[in-house]
């Protein structure tokens, strides 16, 4: 997308505003499938927690993607978006047996990540196809909050508990059809990924009726100009060869599954915000925008870096600014960042705003959530309206007058 298109959308739909480029989502999906074209059976389960707008789900469905859901609500959204139950995988963490039962009743593939629920579910439903999530104890991820494969992680069943796991399966006569792992997000070193894959292969040898192996995702995307990213093409070449060799050893053509979220939608997203005030202090120039971490929490939560440009003055001289929001506590998007000269009323564009941005937004400070727009075939289509005061009041129940006066 070009700056003029984004400025036109900000003028048309207001700010703050999320914009998603359909063509970028498509190109990322095709890049991943092409990298693993040597695998006979490949399945992409989009990790919808990254961005769960129904229009985005429909777009990915039409590209051939399936879904990875982590809650009953995400499962229901997927069904609402037109996915069939067999196109959805349920990979929760720490949910109740009741929620797993509810998802099972919908006909969705269950992925279980703890021994307690595994034994309870297997005892009650020994013939139901189940996938098991293994924790390979491989430290990977760009931040401790998104590194989920280490030994103290809450995710998955420890690979060191494999004998206990196998005993539960043998005692319950469970139908284990898949093994899954996920080591974290922002994985750059593909050798770490390949090392973890070997652990998954070793675990898989304990189960004779597998249909698929799920390698998770966590591929790193570039967050700024000249940033490094996961070499998907090299990973595809090496892992495909190793996976095909394992299938030959196993005696069966298994399905290779990935569950990318950020990889598919991050670079497709743009967050547009208007500058409310330019404020000079003794040592800093602040650009205060009409948004805050209620709309884009990643810089405060993960310390993530989003490339920011002034699309109202793209050829302006660069100066140093700290970009901050309007939330009444520390609310910083960038500190002392070189950005084209900013004036009040300018529109700033945050790149890589497609993943874990709107989906993690809130009504903190009773602020409205922004609108979302999908840019497709050279046009902007509103796919979520800007919230209103009525949305804030929805589901709130005032005290009856007789109680309030007591």
UniProtKB/TrEMBL annotation:
Under which EC number(s) is this enzyme classified? 4.1.1.20
The catalysed reaction is: meso-2,6-diaminopimelate + H(+) = L-lysine + CO2
Entry keyword annotation includes Lyase: yes
Q: Which residues bind pyridoxal 5'-phosphate?
A: 218, 356
Sites binding substrate sit at 298, 302, 329, 356
Q: In which pathway is this protein known to take part?
A: Amino-acid biosynthesis; L-lysine biosynthesis via DAP pathway; L-lysine from DL-2,6-diaminopimelate: step 1/1
Job of this protein: Specifically catalyzes the decarboxylation of meso-diaminopimelate (meso-DAP) to L-lysine.
Output this protein's name: Diaminopimelate decarboxylase
Q: What is the lineage of its organism?
A: Bacteria, Pseudomonadati, Bacteroidota, Flavobacteriia, Flavobacteriales
């Amino acid at each position: 997308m070009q700056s003029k298109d984004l400025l036109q959308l900000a003028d048309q739909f207001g700010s703050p505003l999320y914009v998603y480029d359909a063509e970028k989502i498509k190109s990322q999906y095709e890049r991943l499938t092409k990298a693993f074209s040597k695998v006979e059976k490949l399945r992409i389960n989009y990790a919808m927690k990254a961005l769960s707008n129904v229009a985005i789900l429909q777009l990915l469905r039409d590209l051939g993607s399936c879904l990875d859901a982590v809650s009953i609500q995400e499962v229901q959204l997927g069904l609402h978006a037109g996915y069939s139950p067999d196109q959805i995988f349920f990979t929760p963490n720490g949910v109740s047996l009741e929620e797993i039962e509810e998802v099972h009743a919908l006909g969705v593939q269950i992925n279980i990540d703890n021994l307690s629920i595994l034994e309870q579910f297997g005892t009650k439903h020994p013939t139901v196809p189940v996938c098991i999530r293994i924790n390979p104890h491989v430290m990977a991820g760009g931040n401790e909050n998104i590194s989920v494969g280490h030994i103290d992680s809450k995710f998955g069943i420890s690979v060191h508990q494999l004998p206990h796991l196998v005993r539960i399966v043998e005692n319950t006569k469970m139908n284990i059809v898949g093994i899954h792992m996920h080591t974290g997000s922002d994985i750059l070193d593909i050798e770490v990924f390949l090392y973890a894959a070997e652990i998954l292969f070793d675990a898989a040898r304990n189960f004779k009726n597998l249909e698929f192996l799920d390698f998770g995702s966590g591929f790193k995307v570039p967050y700024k100009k000249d940033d490094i990213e996961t070499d998907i093409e090299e990973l595809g070449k090496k892992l495909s060869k190793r996976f095909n060799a394992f299938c030959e050893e196993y005696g069966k053509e298994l399905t290779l599954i990935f569950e990318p979220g950020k990889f598919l939608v991050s670079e497709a997203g743009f967050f547009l915000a208007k500058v409310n005030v330019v404020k000079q202090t003794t040592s800093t120039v602040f650009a205060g925008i009409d948004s805050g971490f209620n709309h884009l929490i990643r810089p405060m939560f993960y310390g993530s870096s989003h490339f920011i440009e002034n699309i109202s003055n793209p050829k302006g001289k660069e100066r140093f600014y700290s970009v901050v929001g309007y939330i009444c506590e520390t609310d910083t998007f960038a500190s002392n960042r070189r950005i084209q000269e900013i004036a009040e009323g300018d529109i700033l564009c945050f790149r890589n705003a497609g993943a874990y941005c709107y989906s993690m937004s809130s009504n903190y400070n009773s602020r409205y959530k922004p609108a979302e727009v999908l840019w497709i075939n050279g046009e902007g289509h509103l796919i979520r309206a800007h919230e209103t005061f009525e949305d804030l009041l929805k589901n709130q129940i005032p005290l009856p007058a007789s109680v309030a006066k007591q």
